[in-house]
Every structure is written in structure tokens, then in C-alpha cells.
Amino acid sequence: MEDNRMKLTLLSPRGIMDARLAHAPRLDTLAGKTICELSNASWEYNRVFPAVRELLQKRYPTLKIIPYAEMTPDRMDIDNLDNVARMVKEKGCQGVISGMAA
After folding, report:
1. Would you say residue 18 lies in a domain?
2. What does the alpha-carbon distance between residue 75 and residue 14 come to, in Å, rounded to a whole number?
3. Each residue's pLDDT tens digit, 48-62
């Protein structure tokens, strides 16, 4: 008897998530920290980042935020993880805000 079963491979439309990569621990506070914005230039990034930046700076007056335009002026910059890591280190970022979803 012939086996006519079909084998399917299902792929997530979101892409493959590598669960082996752990997130860095949360900062205990944002006061006095340097936070860098990383943008992929999607969905209203030019409106959302300034709004979030303003709210955070009101809440944490000693917080230093390096805007996305200084960090990732070209959308392709964010796709190169080595480049992003270098920029984050050079700017002394202690935390990162990344966005936006497409």
C-alpha cells in the first residue's frame, strides 16, 4: 500500500524568531542614562519617536536621548547588526528604543 500522506512545513509570516537570543536586563531607572533611538523608517516613526522622546524627557530630566536621525540616518543602517552594535557602543548607549513596526 502506497503512503500518500503529504508533509507540510509551516512558516510564520513574521519571520523566524531566534529564541536563543536573550534580551538585556531592564535598566533600574532611566534617570541619568543615555538612550539611543533606532529606526527602520516604518509606520509614522517621524511622529512617534519625537512624541516618546518628549514624554521621557519630561519624566526623566537627566535622561540623554540620541535621536534616530543621529543613529540610523539611512534605513539600511539598521539592517546591519554589526553596524548597529558599533554605533550603540560608540554613542555610549545604555538602552535602546527601536521601532517602528511595518
Report:
1. no
2. 19
3. 889 999 999 999 999
Separation CA 52–CA 32 (nearest Å): 17
Range of the domain at 55: 39-99
How many structural domains comprise the chain? Answer: 1
Q: What is the pLDDT of residue 100?
A: 66
72 CB neighbour count, 10 Å cutoff: 24
CA distance 9 to 2: 22
Domain contains 20: no
Three-state SS letters, 35-91: EEEEECCCCCHHHHHHHHHHHHHHHCCCCEEECHHHHCCCHHHHHCHHHHHHHHHHC
Contact between residue 99 and residue 71 where contact means Cβ atoms under 8 Å apart: no
**pTM for this one?**
0.69
Length of the chain in terms of residues written: 102
**Domain-embedded: residue 10:** no
